[in-house]
Glycosyltransferase family 4 protein (Desulfofervidus auxilii), 362 residues
Amino acid sequence: MKVAIVVDRITNYGGIQRIVLLMARKFNADIYTGLYNPDTTFPEFKEYQITELIPRDSSQYRWPYRIRGRLLHYKFSRLNLKDYDIYILHGGKSLEIARRHHPNLWYCHSPTRWLYDLYEDELSRFNFPVRELFRGACYFLRKRDKSNVKHVDKIVANSNNVKERVKRIYGRDADVVYPPVNIKKFRYKKTGNFYLSTARLSPEKRVDMIVRAFQQMPDKKLIVASSGSEYEKIKRMSQGYENIKVLGWVSEEELIELYGNCIATVFASHYEDFGMVAVESMASGKPAIAPNDMGFTESVIDKKTGLLINPTVENIIKAVEWMTPERAKKMRKACEERAKEFSEDKFIEGIKKAMDEVIGKT
């Protein structure tokens, strides 16, 4: 079976990129992406056939984010791929190819957040003239997005949370196949002396809230092992605090080492679709302190494999003080067992079933 994977971008060390890598390996797939930067994502991508719509050495690659995004929609809409048995789509821009490429399957990590659930938050960032322009643009972008989804043959959501949003926004049903973690790769090493944050440094992940909490706990150490649009902000916030260390993106080997040696992980995301980072944490035998809503509630079991909270600076402080090294260590076995529910084998089994169904219908 010849498979094409179409993904918005491969430019960071994220959950989507991990899944694309796994699919490419298991299905021997070709990859088509809007943006690709081999220097800022998993090096294993160099082993695969990748076609980029906007080459990294072109001037278009450096265009402003919003303008480049509209260009990518156009580029995807003009793609004309042939001789594939199925097309697997990741991301909102990749949906443009659904009109002319069948059979197709959309693995939905989330409907585009800033168009729907985070629309009001995004709107509030702009002054009046820009806000009105943004409001008008979003009206047409939503119409295009919903039109594209009508051409999708099958939707597979990464969580029940996302499944419900797909139903609410698009009126479409979706299967659920949870994202995978290579549980053989992550390992408990020891209960060390630091807490770990691995969420991408972007506004909705609210890592700044975690840093503010640790600013008030000089006796508790925090390591932030990630990067993103708020990297400079988080780096500035950590200055002068010997207990807070910001590493930026780290290699997969370093990340596994950090997971294996921390006390616990800490997350404060707003509108988390699933939260693979919590599963990586549990696969390492480490509990996760995470928001008590949306995606994290499908993986973290409160007071058994972590602690679910309403994220505020005060509540993060209370949670960290509650999650002592001794208490975290007692959760090790429960964490490791829970992580097995999200293995790569179970994921591939679910995706294969969905692929067979959509191919059988065409």
Notes: The mean pLDDT is 95. The radius of gyration is 20 Å. Residues 122 and 158 are 24 Å apart (CA to CA). DSSP finds 13 helices and 13 strands in the chain.
